[in-house]
Specification:
The protein has 356 residues and is α/β, with parallel strands linked by helices. The chain is built from eleven helices and twelve strands. Helices cover 40% and strands 15% of the residues. The longest helix has 22 residues. Bound molecules: pyridoxal-5'-phosphate.
Length: 356
Amino acid sequence: MIPGPTNLDRSVLEALALPAIGHTSREFYDEFGELLALAANAFMAKREQMVVITGSGTFGMESGIATFLGNGEKVLAIINGYFGERFAQIAEIYGSKVKRLTVRDGRSASEDELARALSEDDFKAVLMVHSETSNGVLNDVSALARTAKERGVYTFVDAVSSLGGVKLDFGSGLYDFVFASSQKCLAAPPGAALIAISDELRPLMKPGRVRSYYFDLGRWADIMGDPKIYLTTPAIPNFRALRVALMNLMDEGRERRWERHSMLGRAAWRFSEDTGVRLMAVDRSPTVSAFYVGSRAPAIKERILKDHNILVATGIGQERDSIIRIGHLGLTDVHLMDETLIAFSEALRSVAAAPA
Ligand SMILES: Cc1ncc(COP(=O)(O)O)c(C=O)c1O
């Protein structure tokens, strides 16, 4: 019950255990083609807009910056937490001129705040995190992306802990660059970054424009159309497992999976109301909840693991010891969620009762 990597379905584990086929085999080309089509379904995008590459969520983040924003472009970064700040830092590493729009109080950035910030300079792109996994804040990305697009600004969205669990419609035309990773709501093992790139941004994807090899998406464009072209060796077992996980998503249905996640989110929010344990987020993600527990997070986490064999997460960065994060994403169902929340309330009681 950490916010990724998540539990895997048996069918996905079985795909991981398949024989090691070669990346130049007919079987792999065929499967990779299917994988791209299935990924497009998850993003509500066109197949030719998709890129799937060996790497993690941070690959998506860094490759987007390196490929499109690495030449001193002015960028506005919306920061609600740790991963928003990471996005901004990577942009700075690649030489973008970054202005931060920081929203501290557990809220989504508002359209007004964004419009005001965008009016202050000639920005090329806005960076935003859909579900901020560090504190459970959900940005209203469709409203924010519309605000940016109306002003001719490209929209870059980190959908690492939202894609598959919360609606994000790439086909709406509001987004230019959206990335996710395999190990969260898609319920596949870590190892694949999934990226959708808009038709407007795509002409900028020319190989060799930027000082990077692996992160230069221009080099990857042709390979997505023809995986027989060699660039690097893909993590074949992970890709095969991801393909099956995406089939499972299709079987469940996008809408039904979104609804299941929102039910799990509501269970976490009810728990907060019933127990008085404060949630960090006001605008809340249905995939991850961050509860403020003073300095008791490590003890609570240990209790839950010891007494119930359930792994939850503490905070990230400076807030490591004061936050319990529960990931209710991927395959989690109401029973597992109930069991986790019961374990959490028992641990809260026993840690409170323990001598300091
Ligand atoms: C919102 C968000 N962005 C980016 C990342 C980085 O992804 P990865 O750890 O797969 O590189 C994470 C990881 O948890 C995340 O939750």
